[in-house]
Backbone:
């Protein structure tokens, strides 16, 4: 096989893996949008915040240490213990659940029945706020996240493909793990929403708020629950991205990449988020490889996803798996 | 406004359609206008102009434009930063290609160029609605910023990739470049704000504005009663982009003087202007001029306050 083709295949495969990462963020969006109609711009920052909290707890960092030191003139930074990864993850989930409760109690309970755009802007405000809090709480330096996930080139794939094509594919172990975890997460979410009481309540709320209220489902509880789950998904995304490129503030920008993913897949569809993520991931990598870098001066990844989504939507306005839009006067 | 008349005392259609139905507001408007025209230019100095007044005026224009699109026509746009960049780069190209052109013409032409680009990116709005459209306009934002970064023709092949405004004047008074006096910056922006606010107000209460509002309230119903959605939506995109383009041009020529596109017209700018529109009130021309006052004043006040609290007298105290 010609080298160019093989290289293209490798690019596509890596795009697929990047797509899984986008899909992980998009998943959190879909969950919240389905249940509460809130388009949560803060999802990316939640991933950042979760990853920072995880690293902070793992390293025994004192939260708000900068603030404390500045006010009291002390010099404390670390508690001096290292928490095991699993415990740290559990504690972070608790923190994210607490965050979910706070957000619902102090922001969205005041905005019930507001227009979607107002809720959207509120989440943008929340994103800025959370970014500031994360900065103040854990410091702004780039942190290394290590929860014991395998990293580096996968030798088995490298060797097998080398024997088959005479060209070894470079696939990161972490990407493979991310794919498996994303698949598990989706299966888990589907099982949860199909077979548990809370899951059914969640689907009822997603279907119709008022009807759900009338059969005795507590909207407040469901919203806190769904924000907690979104927080958990954010944590998973944060771990993956953090392990890949370090926990840093540019992490919050991946939220934006999740938007075209959502548009492609439809705002209300969990499989849509996954498929959309894969299409965007492969599409932008291949476009950059085939057209962007040779002819357009590169860096087309910044906008290609949006333009692809835009063109796609012109032909299918509800996205791939979105509910059919029925308009009545 | 924050208050209204108790009761409905109007007897004629013009009275009903008045911009300021309450006498107090009418007088207040003229007093503020007179103050802004006849008093402020003589008091303003560099510090006040560049930290508060000029950005306030320029953002007011951008917010007016976005309000026409979001507040009156109901099409959410997150491409404001990109359209401002179009205005800025268009004004740069006009200024360098036609050095004899005066700044009013340059700014208005940049607005027209942006209007054309805006109408182009408004085309998807005929198919896509709501949040899908908001995200679709992000395509404009990222694509335009990328374009101005990657195509050297836009920044005249300068080594840094930046554009910087050459010195140009209006009626013999320098309004761009480093030698501009504060009052000239202020007055030049003020003229645009006053004229464009007047235009916006009258557009929105005329036929065009009614069509926009019909589309906003229920586009299918509007179509049934004979509003052409293609023309209504595209005209909203074009008019709004014209305003935003003018503000982008002023932002570059008058306020910053030199611009790097990703930094000055990034996605943050889109959100900032959208915040202004929402804080000021969707569908309110006067809200659009109130909100930048808040958005410009608040960071300024808080940084001023913080600098007093944390570091003694503010560093900019020497003005």
Residues:
């Amino acid at each position: 096989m010609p080298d160019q083709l093989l290289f293209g295949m490798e690019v596509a495969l890596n795009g697929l893996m990047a797509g899984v990462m986008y899909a992980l963020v998009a998943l959190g969006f879909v969950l919240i949008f389905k249940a509460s109609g809130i388009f949560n711009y803060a999802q990316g920052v939640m991933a950042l915040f979760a990853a920072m909290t995880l690293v902070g707890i793992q390293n025994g960092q004192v939260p708000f240490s900068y603030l404390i030191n500045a006010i009291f003139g002390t010099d404390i930074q670390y508690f001096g213990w290292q928490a095991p990864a699993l415990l740290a993850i559990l504690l972070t989930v608790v923190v994210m659940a607490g965050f979910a409760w706070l957000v619902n109690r102090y922001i969205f309970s005041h905005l019930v029945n507001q227009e979607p755009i107002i809720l959207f802007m509120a989440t943008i405000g929340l994103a800025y706020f959370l970014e500031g809090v994360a900065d103040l709480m854990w410091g702004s330096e780039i942190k290394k996240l290590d929860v014991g996930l395998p990293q580096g080139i996968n030798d088995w794939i490298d060797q097998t493909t080398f024997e088959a094509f005479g060209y070894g594919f470079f696939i990161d172990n972490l990407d493979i793990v991310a794919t498996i975890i994303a698949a598990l997460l989706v299966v888990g979410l589907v099982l949860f929403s199909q077979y548990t009481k809370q899951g059914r309540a969640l689907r009822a709320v997603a279907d119709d708020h008022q009807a759900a209220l009338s059969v005795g489902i507590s909207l407040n509880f469901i919203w806190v629950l769904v924000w907690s789950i979104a927080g958990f998904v954010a944590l998973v995304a944060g771990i993956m991205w953090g392990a890949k490129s370090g926990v840093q503030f540019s992490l919050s920008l991946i939220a934006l990449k999740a938007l075209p993913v959502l548009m492609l897949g439809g705002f209300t569809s969990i499989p849509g988020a996954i498929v959309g993520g894969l299409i965007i991931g492969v599409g932008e990598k291949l476009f950059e490889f085939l057209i962007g870098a040779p002819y357009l001066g590169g860096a087309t990844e910044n906008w290609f996803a949006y333009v692809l989504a835009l063109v796609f939507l012109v032909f299918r306005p509800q996205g791939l798996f979105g509910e059919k839009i029925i308009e009545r006067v | 406004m924050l208050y209204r008349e108790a009761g409905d005392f109007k007897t004629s259609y013009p009275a009903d359609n008045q911009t300021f139905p309450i006498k107090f507001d009418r007088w207040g408007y003229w007093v503020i206008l007179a103050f802004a025209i006849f008093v402020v230019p003589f008091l303003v100095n560099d510090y006040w102009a560049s930290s508060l007044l000029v950005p306030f005026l320029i953002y007011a224009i951008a917010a007016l434009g976005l309000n026409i699109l979001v507040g009156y026509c109901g099409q959410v746009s997150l491409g404001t930063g990109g359209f401002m960049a179009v205005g800025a780069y268009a004004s740069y190209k006009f200024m360098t290609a036609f050095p004899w052109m005066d700044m009013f013409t340059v700014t208005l032409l940049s607005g027209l160029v942006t209007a054309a680009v805006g109408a182009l990116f408004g085309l998807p709005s005929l198919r896509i609605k709501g949040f899908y459209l908001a995200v679709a306009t992000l395509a404009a934002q990222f694509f335009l910023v990328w374009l101005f970064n990657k195509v050297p023709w836009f920044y005249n092949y300068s080594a840094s990739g930046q554009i910087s405004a050459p010195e140009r004047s209006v009626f013999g008074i320098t309004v761009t470049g480093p030698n501009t006096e504060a009052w000239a910056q202020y007055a030049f922006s003020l003229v645009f704000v006053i004229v464009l606010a007047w235009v916006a107000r009258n557009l929105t209460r005329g036929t065009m504005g009614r069509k926009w509002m019909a589309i906003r309230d229920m586009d299918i119903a509007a179509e049934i009663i004979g509003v052409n959605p293609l023309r209504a939506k595209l005209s909203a995109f074009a008019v709004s982009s014209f305003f935003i383009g003018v503000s982008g041009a002023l932002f570059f020529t008058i306020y910053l003087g030199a611009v790097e596109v990703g930094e000055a017209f990034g996605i943050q700018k889109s959100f900032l202007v959208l915040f202004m529109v929402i804080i000021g009130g969707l569908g309110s021309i006067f809200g659009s001029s109130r909100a930048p006052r808040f958005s410009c004043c608040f960071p300024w006040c808080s940084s001023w306050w913080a600098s007093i609290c944390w570091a003694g007298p503010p560093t900019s105290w020497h003005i």
